[in-house]
Amino acid sequence: MSIPKNARHKFMASIKCIGILTSGGDAPGMNAAIRAVTRTAIYNGFHVKGIMRGYRGLISNEIIEYHSESVSNIIQKGGTILKTARCPEFKTPEGRKTAYDNMKAAGIDALVVIGGDGTITGARIFAEEYDVPIVGLPGTIDNDLSGTDSTIGFDTALNTIMEAVDKLRDTATSHERLFFVEVMGHTAGYLALNGAIATGAEAAIIPEASTGDDQLKTLIDNGFRKSKNSAIVLVAENPETGGAMGLAERVKKEYPQYDARVTILGHLQRGGSPSAVDRILASRLGAAAITALKEGQRNVMTGIRNGEIVYVPFSLAISHTKQMNRDNIELVKVLSI
């Protein structure tokens, strides 16, 4: 949407202080994003305030002044220096009213929020209720936000999965075992699918492909049973897949000749120093958030498509319409023979 030049100037003049928060699950690269938002804002003449513990910090008034040196030496660190927390209170009108009152008392005119689906959903509601200019950054290892090719933290988590599975491969081969490796991805199988390609896994059981039962049967009947005495299967944690534990139980009952084991990587996937890819992505998206506010944009998430920065309406970002690359699903099958 094109905003008239005079309207942009008026809008920019009304913003003097920008608040930053991280919310929901942490993701590697969040600190790089905080750094980029802070320094780009200061470079453009804005004051910056950090909000601790996400939306909870807005409600409990944990707001601190941020300067350029506040974000020194953090680009390489995992987690988030602003901390993060779930906040059921922000889902209530009373909680959001307290958050708004504290924000205005602190002199904050606009927000930059970094997080996943829940974070962007909360930002959309807050912006609608109180006419607050908000720009979001996609910070989630699941890569499940629509309108962007990748999210901050996805690449680092994928590398963590790759390193873990490479180690499991040694013992799977030595003991002729079938390993189910459960990875994060509550609503999407991006980590499982791309992790399977990167590690040479025999299969990826993901909600987008079909039911977990069908995928397991295909693995056993058409692949593992015929040509291999060991296998590694990456499984998205989504209940539709049955989860790694559920699949292992099925193998125990239906294919008792196989020694099936389970490894659940869990929160290990969230940790670690962000990769170069995530540091660069977070830096670009963080700077783009300030550009969006300067241009008078609001209620948008910064994203990346084909290497270019894009601005995605909140409604699209949380629409769950992102399409899995079907060619990659087929690629796992082809390369696992």
Topology:
Layout: H1 5-14, E1 17-22, H2 30-43, E2 47-51, H3 54-60, E3 63-66, H4 93-105, E4 110-115, H5 117-130, E5 134-138, H6 154-175, E6 178-183, H7 190-199, E7 203-205, H8 212-227, E8 231-236, H9 243-254, E9 260-264, H10 276-294, E10 300-305, E11 308-313, H11 314-317, H12 326-335
Parallel strand pairs: 1-2, 1-4, 4-5, 5-10, 6-8, 6-9, 7-8
Antiparallel strand pairs: 2-3, 10-11
Query: What is the spatial order of strands in the main beta sheet?
Result: 3-2-1-4-5-10-11
What is the global morphology? Answer: elongated
Q: What is the CATH C level class of the largest domain, in words?
A: Alpha Beta
Which residues form runs of ≥5 with pLDDT under 50? Answer: none
Rg, rounded, reads 22 Å
- Portion of residues in beta strands equals 15-25%
SSE string, helices as H and strands as E: HEHEHEHEHEHEHEHEHEHEEHH
Helix proportion range: 40-55%
* Tally of DSSP β-strands: 11
Q: Mean of residue pLDDT?
A: 90
* Major sheet description: 7 strands, mixed
- Number of discrete domains: 2
Distance between the termini: 49 Å
